[in-house]
């Protein structure tokens, strides 16, 4: 015959069990929070987003129709887009636009002074891994702005993010009002080194959006 446990022993066991369950739940919650991605900061679209759909809007900004652009430093700008849980944003689109090596955009507000051989705008579909890749130039500076590339992420017609991508170590960053207003942890999300490769330089960005 089993002797019943005293009331205080039963209570103590229940408290220990409850405490253990609470600590386990807390550790799981913390682990999940640690795996969440920090959202890529949103930044201004600026005044030079295309007013009309460009005739050529593919991944290769160094070719505009039959024209080839040979100025500046050729670059691969690539990366991955995920949601905040790290799931690839497969099927979304990434758009980029930037000035040519002389600092001019393909836009009436910039006097349409851009080099016609530079495509200036591109759009790609994210693959199943959420990856994108563009062939372009290392972004150029112009009056008042550090080198940057504008980027926009969409799913269908829904815009999830508009931001700007920067060159790590560029001396113009600290003087740029838009870049310098970012918190240090946000700067790290949109600033990447342009490292030498066989056919120019390459930059890699990891972008996270609330989908």
Distinctive features:
alpha+beta; Protocatechuate 3,4-Dioxygenase, subunit A; 2 domains; 5-stranded mixed β-sheet; 4-stranded mixed β-sheet; 3 helices; 11 strands; 19% helix
Question: What do you see in this structure?
Answer:
By secondary structure, the protein is an alpha+beta fold. It folds into 2 domains: 1-35; 63-209, Protocatechuate 3,4-Dioxygenase, subunit A. 19% of the residues lie in helices and 30% in strands. It has helices at residues 7-35, 177-180, 184-190; strands at residues 63-64, 67-68, 74-83, 93-97, 121-125, 131-137, 148-155, 158-167, 191-192, 195-197, 200-209. The strands form 3 sheets. The protein has a 5-stranded mixed β-sheet with strand order 5-4-7-8-9. Residues 21-33 have low confidence and may be disordered.
